[in-house]
Structure formats: C-alpha cells, structure tokens
Amino acid sequence: MGRNKKGSSRAAATPLSRERIVQAALSLVNEQGLAAFSTRQLGQRLGCEAMSIYHHFASKQHLLDALVDHAITSVEVPEPGDDAIGRLRRCLDSYRAMARRWPGLFPLVATHRLNTPTGVRFIESMLRLIRTVEPDPELAARQFRAVGYYLIGACLDETAGYARGPSAAEPVSDEFIGRECPNLVAAAPYFQEQHWDATFNYGVDALVKGIAGDTAA
After folding, report:
1. Where in the chain is the domain with CATH 1.10.10?
2. Which of 74, 108, 136, 200 has a Cα-to-Cα distance from 60 of 20 to 30 A?
3. Is the CB of residue 140 less than 8 Å from the CB of residue 134?
4. Contact 192/110 with Cβ under 8 angstroms?
5. pLDDT (tens digit, 9 = 90+) per residue, 46-85?
C-alpha cells in the first residue's frame, strides 16, 4: 500500500498535460483493452480525479480520438519520389508496426472513420503516395481501398484475432481436428507467430505486383 501511495503522490506532483494523459491512456488500453478503459482508472494512473482529465479533453470520445491521432501520426508515409513501390512498402510496414505497438488500441484505429484533421491528412498522404504509382484517380482509389482491406485485416488478425478472439462454447478437440481436418493440420505450423512476417510480406508482394501491373497496363 505504501508503494502505491508514493507512486500516486509522484504522479499527482507531475503537472497534467495532453501528452501525459495520452501516454497513460495508451498504456492502460494496451494492458486492459478498450472495453475496460475508463477515465476513472486513467485518473488513478495519473494520480488525479477523473474530472481533471476533462480540463484537457472535452469528453472521453475526444480522448479516444487523440489516441487514434497519436497512433496514425507514428506511421511513416514517405513523400513521393523515386522507387514509389518501395516507398509504399515502407508505409505498409510502418502501419503494421503501429498496430503491433498498440494492439489494445488497434481495433479502434481500424474502425475509426479518421475524420479528424490528423486523420484526413493521413488519408490524403496515403492517396498521394499511391497516385505516384498509379496516376489514374479511379484505379488509385481502388488500389487504396484494396491496400486498406489487406492491411487492416492482417493487423486485426495479428493483434486481436488468431486465438485471441471469442471461442466456441464447446471447442473441438485436437483429436477431432487430427481426424477430420488433414489440410488444417498441415497448414497449422505456418499459422504460428514466427511465420507472420513471411505471410505478411507474401500478401504485400501480391498487392504491389497487382498495382505495378495496373500501371504497366
């Protein structure tokens, strides 16, 4: 108890700021998930009353928007230039790194409309990068969406899916799978985390080949 009081006193002695609140909130969301996140718990982490947080953020939704903005700001979106395909690949790798850095937050990032100033600038920068590869606006829009489908799906699978999602009430046994699902047994080793990089890169290779093929056509 003494250690908690000292830690709380030190936290309370540090002035609140938007950045400090955001960093503490990111830590809490990663530890406990979005469903359990509350400003009351955040206030305890910061050593202040929950109401003090609202001096910096008008509502909990404003704070969540700030967390999403913080996450997408960390994504490297290279400026247009030589080796446009290579620049696009770096951007996709950076987005995936963001998702894995904040797995507890990523389900919100994935479904957020990104309609804050930071969000729409991020979308614009992604479209600008894709337009350097494919100048046709219709094809570029379709490529942007296709990249988003793959990228968000892959990141959700790595951060919130694959054995982290809800289970059946009565899951099948290993014996059942061994008897009924030989293809699943053969594939299962490659579903493990040590193979995720290779699988992600395989999908990115297919995407960029398709984009490059559109441009050549």
Report:
1. 2-57
2. 74
3. yes
4. no
5. 999 999 999 999 999 999 999 999 999 999 999 888 898 9
Dig out the tokens for 66 from the structure.
Answer: 């700030």
Query: Beta-strand (E) ranges in the chain?
Result: none
Residue with tokens 């960093």: 23
Instruction: Convert the pLDDT of each residue in 94-144 to its tens digit.
Output: 999 999 999 999 999 999 999 999 999 999 999 999 999 899 999 999 999
Q: Which CATH superfamily is domain 74-216 in?
A: Tetracycline Repressor, domain 2 (1.10.357.10)
Residues in the chain: 217
The two three-digit tokens of residue 101, written as one number = 């850095």
Amino acid letter, 123: I
Backbone angles phi, psi at 83, to 5 degrees: 55, 60
- CA angle centred on 164, ends 99 and 193, rounded to 5°: 65
Global pTM value: 0.89
Of the candidates 38, 41, 40, 42, which has an alpha carbon nearest to the alpha carbon of residue 18? Answer: 42
Alpha-carbon span 145 to 77, nearest angstrom: 16
Asked if residues 95 and 151 have their Cβ atoms less than 8 Å apart, the reply is yes
